[in-house]
Design a protein that fits this description.
Layout (H helix, E strand, L loop, with lengths): L23 H4 L4 E5 L5 H8 L8 E6 L14 H13 L7 E5 L2 H4 L8 E6 L5 H12 L2 E9 L10 H11 L4 E7 L2 E6 L2
Parallel strand pairs: 1-2, 1-4, 2-3, 4-5
Antiparallel strand pairs: 5-7, 6-7
């Protein structure tokens, strides 16, 4: 699912989604996709090759690509990560369909129209308050019947990502349906 010249770290890709998301529901028509936290671009490229393979699909990513205290393990690496991201997108065959917004999600998400996206993948800052904020802000931007995917549900134990995601699910329990969970990725459908 990734080009042979891909540089950088790749974690779970969209082949992890096939069990819970029928690919034909998405790739047979143009979709609009949003990803919070792009890193080297592996996931967005895999989405472009699968769920958003229709040539009129548009894919957006938001990532600051800068150092911050919550992730000291990447300190000093962000210029390299961003450079590789750009190279990976440029050589992916999808550079005209993938639109990167370099910034923080709380600044960038409100710039999109409500009910704009068919699919949203949240894999930004894993601290619970940021995951909760990303979920609340993007929920308005997701179409009815659209899918939201949370990465690393359970990562870092119950006091990290899971707590933020559960906060969202508890608050929006009348408006979402859990589709399933696979390898710490939680799939949710927007009902209304």
């Amino acid at each position: 699912m990734l080009p042979s010249g891909f540089n950088g770290v790749r974690y779970r890709l969209t082949d992890n989604w096939f069990e819970h998301l029928d690919i034909t529901k998405f790739n047979s028509r143009p979709i609009t996709y949003l990803e919070i936290g792009a890193f080297y671009g592996a996931n967005v490229i895999s989405v472009a090759n699968t769920y958003a393979s229709h040539p009129e699909s548009s894919l957006y990513v938001i990532d600051p690509w800068e150092d911050y205290d919550d992730y000291p393990e990447y300190k000093g690496q962000q210029p390299h990560v961003y450079s590789n991201f750009l190279n990976n997108i440029n050589t992916s065959g999808h550079k005209d369909r993938i639109h990167a917004r370099r910034g923080y999600s709380h600044d960038e998400i409100p710039k999109f129209a409500d009910e704009f996206f068919d699919m949203i993948y949240i894999d930004g800052n894993h601290e619970p308050e940021y995951v909760l904020e990303d979920a609340v802000l993007t929920f308005r931007k997701l179409k009815k019947g659209g899918v939201m995917i949370f990465d690393d549900y359970g990562w870092g134990g119950p006091d990290l990502t899971m707590r933020g995601i559960d906060g969202f699910l508890n608050g929006y329990h009348k408006r979402v349906k859990r589709i399933g969970l696979k390898d710490e990725q939680l799939f949710v459908e927007k009902l209304r």
